[in-house]
Amino acid sequence: EIDPVLKETGEMILEENGCYNCHIYDGRGGDTAPVLDNFASDKWLRSLIEDPGQKKFFGKLNDMPAYKEKLSKQEIDNLVHFLQSLRKKSH
């Protein structure tokens, strides 16, 4: 179930961190990185946000910054909640 407060907070975090400069989400944003409205699981998405330089995310070829030290666990949870709300809306 989508919590509207968590969704709104997650969207603010996404916008404050400039994710839309590279990623498309909800039909808007940049196009140099993957679309953000079709990820499989909370765990996978959280792992990508925290440490995108992992081998499973193309390692050093991935230009996305790591957010593990930049965002709190709650902020990452809110961001994941927002992104999952986009996935649920598009399916």
TrEMBL record:
UniProt keyword annotations, A-Z: Heme, Iron, Metal-binding
GO MF entries: electron transfer activity; heme binding; metal ion binding
Record-linked SUPFAM superfamilies: Cytochrome c
Keyword Heme: yes
InterPro entries: Cyt_c-like_dom, Cyt_c-like_dom_sf
Domain named Cytochrome c: residues: 5-87
Listed name of the protein: Cytochrome c domain-containing protein
